[in-house]
Specification:
The protein is of the alpha+beta class and about 600 residues long. It has 16 helices and 26 strands. Strand 15 and strand 16 (about 185) form a beta hairpin. The longest helix is centred in the C-terminal third of the chain and has 25 residues, at about 455-475. It is globular.
């Protein structure tokens, strides 16, 4: 049986070869004299089709395709945290040392550093029975992440031999297991895993804990759950990348996997420059000590872009299996879908809506389905949360990628061009966005914040919807014709929008807001509304009800109230009481 194909046709990243009958679907292959990395995507009789993850310029017909005998897989082990990879887990720093400034063809499937020595602490003894997913050792990968060494899925046995604690590289055997058949299995620091196969778990659990982000519009109005899914769609310039940066910086996930999928090089450069300088608010240490970056920019090979989100989610599942809560930021799934469309066109597949392949919905579903709150094989609770940005052309949310993404996510955070141009950030439109997690997270909010958080949130959403309807009347005949109670709705809606939903990512206090402060702010705005409405009912004119200084101070509390001392909110409440008590006395 021959395991070498011969190239017949080259069409960009798609290569057709003959003599491929003995190859397998999804097998990783080496293409041509330069040994470019590719993957078999179809086999028809003797002819096979391969998508190549590298630039195919210079590749010639009649060159060989060599089998590797395994699917596209990642090496999962110490050295991933704080590193920057391309779409198929090749470290960009190391590539830059080999070929400065660009990725040379045929550089091979280099991965995490095989020579670096890590200090290993072994946690098992000879004679111990180990099952799949068990932790047999630890490596302090960074000061924030203990890398737990796991028995790979599908492997069980008794410990026959263990190495002493010390410094070793990832290729050295640390433990030898003997399975029931008497076979010896070497456990090393890393595992290999096929990127397109989800890693197994013991059980999927109900989702009932929020991912705390420090962003008021998310934590209170449109919460994302740990183990949940969210989409952030928006046209050019609406702040998708900025919103994801804020989530990556401030969310309470243990580990962040940031996938720059087909983004512009300058945007990824900003990420690569910013993240190493950022300090984690919980630990006061660099945020890169719990972050993995995958950079597949728009000028990199298109097939690697298609693989990049699978690379990211596989890494996330690996750290989830250690018991960590992981958040995956995919920016953006539209560029990934465009890569699917380009490859599909070159494969001469029948196009569906707007030229995308007919399997676009199922591929999106496969990706988002890998999120979840789970019990791991080692009986830990852990999660993978997926937050995907979508870039619909012209901001049209009815296009296929946005529409299909909407079917598979539970939080939809629609960005609005008008809000962005008005410098209202995050530009999340409260009328088109929704979160399906509000009901399931209600118990957590009742227990950890207050039992009236969801009621207040719903009350404010009604005010914002009323204000939207009233604005139609205002634009036709002006605000003065409205009764005072409706004019008060307009004023309070402005306070909610400017003082609560708008948040300044560059302000020291406002960039991250603890959930308890968010609730206190919400309560104070509600108190202002109730006192003002009390005055309206007593016949006080709106011109007096709306005291510019009081309303302005309430809006500015996001800057004037410290994140760990809420005394200023108490003072504002007293000022509101003092003003309205005096006003009501005049109209008794």
């Amino acid at each position: 049986m021959s395991r070498e194909g011969i190239i017949d046709l080259i069409n960009g990243p798609v290569v057709k070869a003959r003599n491929m009958a003995d190859f397998k679907m999804r097998e990783m292959v080496m293409v041509g004299d330069k040994k470019l990395i590719g993957e078999v995507v179809s086999i028809e009789g003797d002819e096979g089709t391969i998508q190549v993850y590298e630039e195919t310029e210079g590749l010639k017909a009649e060159e060989m395709v060599i089998s590797t005998g395994k699917p596209l897989s990642l090496k999962l082990g110490p050295g991933m945290i704080g590193n920057i990879f391309d779409g198929i887990e090749r470290p960009l720093k190391k590539i830059n040392e080999i070929s400065e400034g660009f990725i040379a063809e045929g550089i091979g499937l280099i991965s995490i550093d095989e020579d670096k020595k890590w200090r290993v602490k072994i946690l098992v003894n000879e004679g111990d029975e180990l099952r799949q997913g068990a932790i047999f050792g630890e490596v302090e990968e960074t000061s924030l992440v203990i890398h737990r060494l796991l028995v790979p899925p599908g492997i069980n046995g008794r410990v026959k031999w263990v190495i002493e604690d010390g410094e070793y590289n990832i290729e050295e055997p640390l433990v030898i297991l003997e399975d029931n058949g008497g076979n010896e299995l070497n456990l090393k620091m890393y595992q290999e895993w096929a990127v397109r196969s989800p890693r197994p778990v013991m059980e999927r659990l109900p989702i009932d804990i929020p991912l705390i982000t420090g962003q008021r519009v998310l934590d209170i109005f449109f919460p994302i759950a740990k183990g949940g899914t969210a989409a952030i769609p928006g046209g050019f310039g609406t702040g998708k990348t900025m919103t994801q940066h804020q989530l990556a910086k401030w969310s309470d996930a243990d580990i962040i996997v940031y996938i720059g999928c087909g983004e512009r090089g300058n945007e990824m450069t900003e990420v690569l420059e910013d993240f190493p300088k950022l300090i984690d608010p919980k630990t006061e240490k660099p945020i890169m000590e719990r972050t993995i970056l995958i950079a597949n920019t728009s000028n990199m090979p298109v097939a690697a872009r298609e693989a990049s989100i699978y690379t990211g989610i596989t890494m996330a599942e690996y750290f989830r299996d250690m018991g960590y809560h992981v958040a995956v930021m995919a920016d953006s799934t539209s560029r990934w879908a465009e890569a699917l469309r380009e490859i599909s066109g070159r494969l001469e597949e029948m196009p569906a809506e707007e030229g995308y392949p007919a399997y676009l919905p199922s591929r999106l579903a496969e990706f988002y389905e890998r999120a979840g709150y789970v019990t791991t094989l080692n009986d830990d609770d852990a999660s993978v949360t997926i937050i995907g940005a979508v870039s619909p052309a012209g901001g049209d949310f009815s296009e296929p990628v946005t529409e299909n993404t909407k079917r598979y996510v539970n939080a939809f955070l629609g960005l609005d061009k008008r809000l962005a141009y008005a410098r209202h950030y995050p530009a999340i439109n409260w009328l088109t966005s929704y979160s399906g997690y509000i009901k399931t997270l209600g118990h957590w909010y009742d227990k950890n914040v207050s039992d009236d958080v969801i009621d207040l949130r719903n009350k404010f959403m009604k005010i914002l919807h009323k204000e939207d309807k009233l604005q139609e009347i205002v634009q036709l005949v002006g605000e003065d014709v409205l009764p005072d109670d409706q004019r008060l709705i307009l004023e309070i809606a402005r306070v909610i929008k400017t003082g609560f939903l708008q948040q300044n990512a560059f302000h020291k206090i406002d960039t991250y807001v603890p959930i308890n402060k968010q609730y206190e702010m919400l309560k104070l705005i509600n108190y202002l509304y109730e006192r003002a409405y009390e005055g309206i009912k007593k016949g006080v004119p709106i011109s007096q009800i709306k005291d510019k200084r009081i309303f302005s101070e309430v809006v500015k509390m996001k800057y004037t109230v410290s994140n760990d001392d809420f005394n200023r909110i108490k003072e504002l409440r007293e000022e509101i009481d003092s003003y309205y008590d005096g006003l009501l006395e005049k109209y008794e």
